[in-house]
Write a structure and sequence with these properties.
Helix content is 63%, strand content 13%. The protein has 5 helices and 5 strands. It has helices spanning 3-56, 60-71, 145-196, 211-258, 265-279; strands at residues 75-81, 86-89, 111-114, 122-131, 134-144. It has a 5-stranded antiparallel beta sheet.
Length: 286
């Protein structure tokens, strides 16, 4: 492969790799954030569902029933009173750190107390249990972030595999396209080298409707013109040589006569001066 192919392939590869990296990063971030938001939303909806039940019957039996339901799910629940004292929780373990949240007006639809899935053990949502306009208690829903981390890790592996596969296919496509694009350029270069070395009228089998096609046509025209000029030059030199050959022969003959030692001066003058000037044409003296 010629140098131009490597340059074209390298330039295209760097540009496409940069674009693909940006697109993959944006897509990866979007998918991960969307998936995490869906988990938080689902957790919030589950807490609101329990809250709706508890608002109708906020007693020990209903609290036990809600807690029992969560023991078989991958989520956990803590139900507290209005002072955030734990009334019941579905799993043992220290999940009470979120109970001491800063007091604020929590909307009825609830909110997320912790969504830092990459640094926390749980993500947590809260749904207030209302009794009229008064807050009777809270439903805290928990989801271990290990499942989210496993999901993100799986997505990361798939994205890296997809990015690597896309990179390999991109390299193959770029190499192929660069060879296709470089082939006519290399042929034009070889043709100009041949013209420089004296070859002329070299046909180029490049039929394209772009700048390369126009350049190939120009080089073909240049080659044809150089061939014509070379032929005319050779014909001119041939004609000049032919025209000069006869007088040079006469001059050589008269010179040979003039250089003869035994030739009388009168005869030499007759040959070199009188005869040629008087005759008006050259004739061989011998």
């Amino acid at each position: 492969m010629k140098k131009i192919s490597f340059k074209l392939a390298g330039s295209f590869f760097i540009l496409i790799l940069f674009i693909e990296a940006i697109l993959f990063a944006a897509l990866y971030t979007t998918i991960v954030n969307t998936r995490i938001n869906e988990e938080i939303r689902a957790l919030q909806l589950r807490g609101n569902s329990h809250r709706d039940v508890l608002e109708k019957h906020f007693d020990k039996r209903t609290i036990d029933h809600v807690t029992l339901m969560e023991t078989e799910a991958r989520t956990n629940v803590i139900i507290t009173d209005q002072n955030r004292r734990v009334l019941r929780q579905s799993a043992s373990g220290d999940m009470t750190e979120h109970l001491h949240f800063e007091e604020k007006n929590i909307p009825r639809k609830g909110t997320a107390l912790s969504s830092h899935w990459n640094t926390s053990k749980y993500i947590c949502t809260i749904s207030p249990i209302m009794n009229g306009r008064e807050t009777a208690g809270y439903v805290f829903m928990y989801l271990e972030t290990s499942s989210i981390k496993a999901l993100v890790a799986s997505l990361t592996k798939r994205f890296f595999f997809s990015f690597g596969l896309t990179g390999v296919l991109t390299v193959a496509a770029i190499l192929w396209f660069s060879r296709v694009l470089a082939k006519p350029i290399i042929k034009l270069k070889e043709t100009t080298e041949s013209i420089k070395n004296g070859q002329a009228s070299i046909p180029l089998d490049i039929k394209r409707n772009d700048e390369l096609g126009e350049l190939a046509a120009s080089i073909e025209s240049l080659s044809s013109n150089l061939s014509r000029l070379q032929k005319e030059r050779n014909d001119f030199l041939s004609s000049v040589a032919h025209e000069l050959r006869t007088p040079i022969t006469y001059i050589k003959g008269y010179t040979d006569v003039a250089m003869r030692d035994k030739l009388e001066p009168q005869a030499r003058n007759s040959v070199l001066v009188d005869y040629p000037r008087g005759s008006g044409q050259f004739k061989h003296p011998c």
